[in-house]
C-alpha cells in the first residue's frame, strides 16, 4: 500500500515533465484543429466590438450557424446581415445577459428556432469607469450582473444539453485585468477576477465530461469602444490589440482546445513579476507605465 502511494508520488513529477514537454512541442508544431462545420455558435454581445469580429471569424472558419445576443437591435441586425452575406446561417435575439429570466427565456427561443448550441461565447461586458466612492450602487451592481452573473445564467442555460450531446465548448472573453487590477475601473476588475474564478472552476469541473471543454481568453487593452478615452503613457510600447487579432486567436484557441490564453504573450511576464516582486516595486511599475492613472480620463461604457 505504502509502495503504491510512493509510486504515485514519484510518477507525478514525471507526468508533469512529460505534459510540459508535450505542451511545448504542441506550441511549436501545427496542431489538429477542431472542424467547426457541425457547430452552432452563440456569441453574447455579438453585434459590435470584439463580438462582431468573433462572429466573422467563426463564420470564416466554417461554423454552421452563428447566433448573436445583445441589447442594441441596430448593430445586431447589421452583423447578422454581414454574416449571412458570407454564406453562414445567422440569427440574432435581443437579450440582456444581466437579466436571468430573459436569458432563460431567450435560450428556450434559440433552441426552438435554431436548435442546439455547441459553442457558447460569453463576450458581453460593460465597464462603469469610476472609483468605488464615486460610483452609485446600482452601477456597481450592473457590471457584476452583466460581466459575471450573466455567465452563470448563459452557461446554466446551454451547458446541460452540451453534456447530453457530449459536444460543447464554453468560451469566456475575460481580461488581463482579472489577474492584475488597476484603479479607476474597480467594478470591471472585480467582475473579471470573479469571472476568471468561475472559468477556472468550470474548466476543472469539465475534466470528466467527455466532449465538453472551456477556453478563457485574457486580452490586454483592445481598440474597441470599450476603453475609448483611456490615456496610455507609452502607446508605442504597449499598443492596443486589434479586435480582429483577439477574435482570430480566440477561435484558434477553441479549435485547439486551449484552456487559457493570455494576449499578447508578454502578459505572462507581468503575471510572473506580480507573483514575485514586493508590492512597493509593483507600485513603481504601475506609476512608471501609467496604468496607475490611465483611467483618470475615462468615462466608462455601459
Ligand atoms: N476592449 C478592451 O480593451 C478589452 C480588453 C480585454 C478584454 N475585453 C473583453 O472583451 C469583451 C468584448 O469587449 P469589447 O471591447 O468588444 O467591448 P464593447 O465594444 O464595449 O462591446 C461590448 C459588447 O457587449 C454587449 N453587451 C453589453 N452589455 C450587455 C448585456 N447586458 N447583454 C448583452 N450584451 C451586452 C454590447 O452590445 P449591446 O450594447 O448591444 O448590448 C457589445 O456587443 C468583453 O468581455 C471585455 O471585457 C475587452
Automatic annotation (TrEMBL):
Keywords: Lipid metabolism, Membrane, NADP, Oxidoreductase, Signal, Transmembrane, Transmembrane helix. It is a multi-pass membrane protein. It is found in: Membrane. Its EC number is 1.1.1.300. CDD domains: 17beta-HSDXI-like_SDR_c. GO terms for biological process: regulation of retinoic acid receptor signaling pathway. It catalyses: all-trans-retinol + NADP(+) = all-trans-retinal + NADPH + H(+). This is Short-chain dehydrogenase/reductase 3.
Amino acid at each position: 500500500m505504502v509502495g503504491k502511494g510512493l509510486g504515485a508520488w514519484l510518477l507525478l513529477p514525471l507526468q508533469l515533465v512529460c505534459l510540459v514537454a508535450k505542451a511545448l512541442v504542441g506550441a511549436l508544431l501545427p496542431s489538429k484543429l477542431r472542424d467547426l462545420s457541425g457547430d452552432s455558435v452563440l456569441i453574447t454581445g455579438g453585434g459590435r466590438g470584439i463580438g462582431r469580429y468573433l462572429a466573422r471569424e467563426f463564420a470564416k472558419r466554417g461554423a454552421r450557424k452563428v447566433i448573436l445576443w445583445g441589447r442594441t437591435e441596430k448593430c445586431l441586425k447589421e452583423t447578422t446581415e454581414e454574416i449571412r452575406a458570407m454564406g453562414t446561417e445567422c440569427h440574432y435575439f435581443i437579450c440582456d445577459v444581466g437579466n436571468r429570466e430573459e436569458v432563460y427565456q431567450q435560450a428556450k427561443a434559440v433552441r426552438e428556432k435554431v436548435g442546439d448550441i455547441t459553442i457558447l461565447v460569453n463576450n458581453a461586458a460593460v465597464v462603469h469607469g469610476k472609483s468605488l466612492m464615486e460610483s452609485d450602487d446600482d452601477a456597481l451592481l450592473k457590471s457584476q450582473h452583466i460581466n459575471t452573473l450573466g455567465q452563470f445564467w448563459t452557461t446554466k442555460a446551454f451547458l446541460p444539453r452540451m453534456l447530453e450531446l457530449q459536444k460543447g465548448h464554453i468560451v469566456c472573453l475575460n481580461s488581463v485585468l482579472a489577474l492584475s487590477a488597476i484603479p479607476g475601473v474597480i467594478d470591471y476588475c472585480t467582475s473579471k477576477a470573479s469571472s476568471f474564478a468561475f472559468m477556472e472552476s468550470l474548466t476543472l469541473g469539465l475534466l470528466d465530461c467527455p466532449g465538453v471543454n472551456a477556453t478563457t481568453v485574457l486580452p490586454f487593452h483592445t481598440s474597441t469602444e470599450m476603453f475609448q478615452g483611456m490615456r496610455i503613457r507609452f502607446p508605442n510600447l504597449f499598443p492596443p490589440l486589434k479586435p480582429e487579432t483577439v477574435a482570430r486567436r480566440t477561435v484558434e484557441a477553441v479549435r485547439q482546445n486551449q484552456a487559457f490564453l493570455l494576449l499578447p504573450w508578454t502578459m505572462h511576464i507581468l503575471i510572473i513579476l506580480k507573483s514575485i516582486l514586493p508590492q512597493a516595486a509593483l507600485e513603481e511599475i504601475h506609476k512608471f507605465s501609467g496604468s496607475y492613472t490611465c483611467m483618470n480620463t475615462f468615462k466608462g461604457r455601459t
